[in-house]
Design goal:
The protein is of the alpha/beta class and 560 residues long. Helices cover 48% and strands 10% of the residues. It contains 23 helices and 13 strands. It has a six-stranded mixed sheet with strand order 1-2-13-12-10-11, with helices on both faces. Helix 8 packs parallel to helix 13 and helix 13 packs across helix 14. Bound molecules: 6-O-phosphono-beta-D-fructofuranose. 6-O-phosphono-beta-D-fructofuranose (F6P) binds next to loops. The site of 6-O-phosphono-beta-D-fructofuranose (F6P) has 14 residues, from loops.
Length: 560
């Protein structure tokens, strides 16, 4: 029998005590002394055996410290942890977000098939299609100039006011697909409660031609509500009338009452549902800035790409399933080879917000220390995810990747074709994209370093002094991800690939990847501190450090 949390007591046992885990531990010990150089020498078919394709997307896992047997053992772990059942439960609309009793159905938002997707006995697809149609109509009316601002002028800019999942996804997509944007209509994103963000964004905008999207699932988030209120003041101040708000503000939220209280009408509200997690919401009306900035066709292509990857994830056997293998390889490093961080390195300038987006997707989902049943884990869960576009990162932190004491598994991403005409640049970009994973994997031995220095004419003593510094230990793992071009369709696939990878890892770790209780405590404390920063009484209820910092800030601000 299943409990309310979806955890079956009959299956209770420790993951680290399970047969599949033990087999992987033994396998890791056996593989530890074998280098990637040796693995490539021994098996000339590694690339064929350890790379996967879906349409034009090629994912090369062969530069990982794995063999085909590792993948078999990892797939056995996935089966032991009932990955396929959990996947089907997600697609089936079961309330797998157990602490919030919610279904997890971002896949319904991009379901391009005729298949019904139900929460309880209600098919959610009619609601999904209705809101998509509302988004399409609104975006087309704004873009075509049919819908005008309060003073009768065309909209030229949209400012999305949201934070976390209500910002990172649409922001990343608008940047990634900048070549699809129209010069005449530009998106802007304000997230930080630091007034500099809103102030500096508005400074370059004309109130008469600016549309605001207030995006917040809860419509209570401090940062978003503060920015929205200040943006409304700015608009009213410049356009001289409260009535301007109705023409210049729309909302995206699940909280209709709070939206109305803010002064945005039901017709200007775009609905979504509690079964859409914030960090999985760019496919919902939270994607409105995307359809406004890129046009409806691009937004639909984004959905179509994600749907294609969903179908692959739903149907492909574990052994050839891209997000499954990506997730399991991550488990291998985190739990069996001791990696604590994970880098995402797009050789694609347009993906410069992709690592930031993935930080929320991954770390808010899998940065958990208790299992679904409330017991503390006795194994590592989500790693620290970070990254920057190549080649910039090469001139910053790659030193540590190549020669530091940490092993950081990395994903390298690149498009075969750029959107710009500077082909010479692209060849150099691709050469770097290929060179770095090879250097990480195969390194340079002491003998090779010595030989190079000898060839360069250095003396014996100079060689002895310098050679150790020129050694690259190698054996540093990476995944290479190649696609034809960063189109909306391809981007949809890439995002869905990572979303499902996160899901796979959450299942293996028996954690709920869809809640985020860890963000609560800091928010509550901040609410308590707000009035204390301007008060005159001694904030004695705080710890000594926080109290003294409050007092010092008051002093500097002239209020203490
Ligand atoms: O602080 C975390 C969080 O709850 C995220 O999960 C969410 O994406 C973000 O805040 C914004 O929340 P909302 O859309 O409700 O404003």
């Amino acid at each position: 029998m299943r409990t309310r949390t979806g955890y079956s007591p009959a299956l209770m046992r420790t993951l680290t005590d399970s047969p599949a885990w033990h087999s992987l531990k033994q396998h890791a010990e056996a593989l530890r002394p074998i280098s990637l150089r040796q693995l490539f020498e021994k098996n000339p078919d590694r690339f064929e055996q350890l790379s996967l394709r879906h349409e034009d997307l090629l994912v090369d896992f062969s530069k990982h410290r794995i063999t085909p047997e590792t993948l078999q053992l990892l797939c056995a772990l996935a089966r032991q942890e009932q990955l396929e059942t959990w996947r089907d439960r997600m697609f089936g609309g079961e309330p797998i977000n157990s602490t919030e009793h919610r279904a997890v159905l971002h896949v319904a938002l991009r379901n391009r098939s005729e298949r019904a997707i139900c929460v309880g006995d209600r098919d959610v697809m009619p609601d999904v299609r209705r809101v998509l149609e509302q988004m399409r109509t609104f975006s087309e009316q704004v873009r075509s100039g049919k819908l005008l601002g309060f003073t009768g002028q065309r909209f030229r800019s949209v400012v999305n006011i949201g934070i976390g999942g209500s910002d990172l996804g649409p922001h990343m997509v608008c940047e990634a697909l900048a070549p699809y944007q129209n010069e005449a209509f530009r998106p802007h994103f304000v997230s930080n409660v630091d007034g500099a963000h809103l102030h500096e964004t508005l400074a370059s905008l004309d109130p008469a031609t600016t549309l605001f999207v207030v995006a917040s699932k809860t419509f209570t988030t401090q940062e978003t509500m503060t920015n929205a209120a200040s943006a409304r003041d700015w608009l009213v101040r410049h356009l001289g009338s409260e009535s301007a708000v109705a023409s210049h503000f729309v909302a995206v939220s699940t909280n209709h009452a709070a939206v109305q209280a803010f002064g945005i009408s039901a017709e200007r509200t775009f609905e979504f549902w509690d079964w859409v997690g914030g960090r999985y919401s760019l496919w919902s009306a939270i994607g409105l800035p995307i359809s406004l900035a890129l046009g409806w066709d691009s937004f639909e292509q984004l959905l179509a790409g994600a749907h294609a990857l969903d179908e692959h994830f739903r149907a492909a056997p574990l052994e050839t399933n891209l997000p499954v293998i990506l997730g399991l390889v991550g488990i291998w490093y985190r739990n069996f080879l001791g990696a604590s961080s994970y880098a995402v390195l797009p050789y694609d300038q347009h993906l410069h917000r992709f690592p930031a987006y993935l930080q929320q997707a991954d770390m808010e989902s899998n940065g958990k220390r208790v299992r679904r049943d409330g017991e503390a884990v006795d194994y590592a869960t989500g790693p620290v995810l970070w990254g920057e576009p190549g080649t910039n990162g090469q001139h910053a932190f790659y030193q540590l990747l190549h020669q530091g004491t940490e092993m950081v598994p990395a994903d390298f991403l690149a498009a075969a074709e750029p959107h710009h005409p500077l082909t010479k640049h692209h060849v150099k970009l691709l050469a770097n994209f290929l060179a770095q994973p090879a250097a990480l994997a195969f390194g340079r031995t002491l003998e090779e370093a010595r030989a190079e220095l000898t060839k360069a004419g250095l003396s014996e003593s100079e060689i002895e002094g310098l050679a150790p510094h020129k050694v690259f230990p190698g054996n540093r793992p990476s995944t290479s991800i190649v696609y034809r071009k960063l189109t909306p369709y391809t981007l949809g696939k890439l995002i869905a690939l990572y979303e499902h990878k996160i899901f796979v890892q959450g299942v293996i770790w028996s954690i709920n990847s869809f809640d985020q209780w860890g963000v609560e405590l800091g928010k509550q404390l901040a609410q308590r501190i707000i009035p204390e920063l301007d008060a005159s009484h001694d904030p004695v209820s705080h710890d000594a450090s926080t109290r003294r910092l409050i007092l010092y800030l008051r002093q500097l601000r002239g209020s203490g």
